[in-house]
Amino acid sequence: MFDSTDHSHRRFNPLTNGWVLVSPHRAKRPWLGQEETEAKNQAPVYDEACFLCPRNKRATGPVNPDYKETFIFPNDFSAVKLDQPEYTDENADDGEDTLEKRLLHTQGVKGACFVICFAPEHNLTLPSMSIPQISRIVDTWRKLYVDLQSEKDKPYKYVQIFENKGSAMGCSNPHPHGQAWCLETVPTEVSNEISSMERYQAKHNSSLLGDYVQLELKKKMRIVIENNSFIVVVPYWAVWPFETLVLPKEHLTSIKKFNEKQKNDLADTIKRLTVKYDNLFNTSFPYSMGIHQAPLHCTEEYENICYFHMHFYPPLLRSATVKKFLVGFELLSEPQRDLTPEQAAQRLRELSNIHYLEAEKYA
């Protein structure tokens, strides 16, 4: 008899229109490869050398205000800028068919990047924050989306809000912060997801992720967290071992559509999920997290195809020091995972909602 917990199989990802190879029997193999340094958050409340702490001077000269809650400012080392010349291809309209025109395509891109300091305390991470503190971060995300949408004189089309947590994910500063990159294009991953949602809606006259929420609520196999407004699942097509997807139960196209209850429920969801991540291996769990939602400017019909969701991509595999690598077959053929999404969801679901450091404090 075929057993999906022990036999290899492929799973389809309707968001990317791709496949994931699942090889659960490989989880039994011994590990003699690279191990990461175990991450423990031992940072001070304030670090005079930190470019993001209140009252400190940043690398390019500006001094941070004595902020008390969230603080957002233009990235001093922005990946995209507004003040650059237009890109022009001198040979674009000469009518000649060349190999360069067929194969080498360039677009200029303008935009703006922002840093979002979650809190003034240098040693806080999302799992160690209170729900009201995280609610203020959600407020900041929402305000940024609305403000950028109102700047009609700017070429902004999409704002990608994200957080890289931990050195394993390339985070260069441990102060709790996220980023927002705003571009005059809709990025590739987001565009591909929306195209998949559009095809699904045209074929089935329903929402891809809305239907997926109903399916997961019925199955209950991959749900990690649930409250009145949101569910967190290890998606059926997950690539990373403990990857999760945060989904609203109601069809919300963007963070702009949130009411007060939904905002606070999202804060509760983020708090509980990140606590579970830290509790999994009793470490400050690294991840990349990002929000996917409707572009800033689009027709109502196009916006209604979109479905707000959050991706969490954590790299740890077996312990606090063993990391998942996307190499070899994953780079050359298709994504692959060992632990099944159902097994990962069960492990996360069974973890306490009380942070392990708090539990140790009162033990």
From TrEMBL:
Residues 194-359 form the Galactose-1-phosphate uridyl transferase C-terminal domain. Its cofactor is Fe cation; Zn(2+). The keyword Amino-acid biosynthesis does not apply. InterPro entries: GalP_UDPtransf1, GalP_UDPtransf1_His-AS, GalP_Utransf_C, GalP_Utransf_N, HIT-like_sf. Fe cation binds at E193, H292, H309, H311. Its EC number is 2.7.7.12. It holds the Pfam family GalP_UDP_tr_C. One of its GO terms (biological process) is galactose catabolic process via UDP-galactose, Leloir pathway. Pathway: Carbohydrate metabolism; galactose metabolism. It catalyses: alpha-D-galactose 1-phosphate + UDP-alpha-D-glucose = alpha-D-glucose 1-phosphate + UDP-alpha-D-galactose. Keywords: Carbohydrate metabolism, Galactose metabolism, Iron, Metal-binding, Nucleotidyltransferase, Transferase, Zinc. CDD domains: GalT. Residues 2-187 form the Galactose-1-phosphate uridyl transferase N-terminal domain. Zn(2+) binds at C50, C53, H122, H175. One of its GO terms (molecular function) is zinc ion binding. The active site is at H177. One of its GO terms (cellular component) is cytoplasm. UDP-alpha-D-glucose binds at residues 26-29, 59, 75-76, 164, 170-172, 179, 324-325, 329-330, 336. Binds 1 Fe cation per subunit. PANTHER family: GALACTOSE-1-PHOSPHATE URIDYLYLTRANSFERASE. Belongs to the galactose-1-phosphate uridylyltransferase type 1 family. This is Galactose-1-phosphate uridylyltransferase. It comes from Nadsonia fulvescens var. elongata DSM 6958.
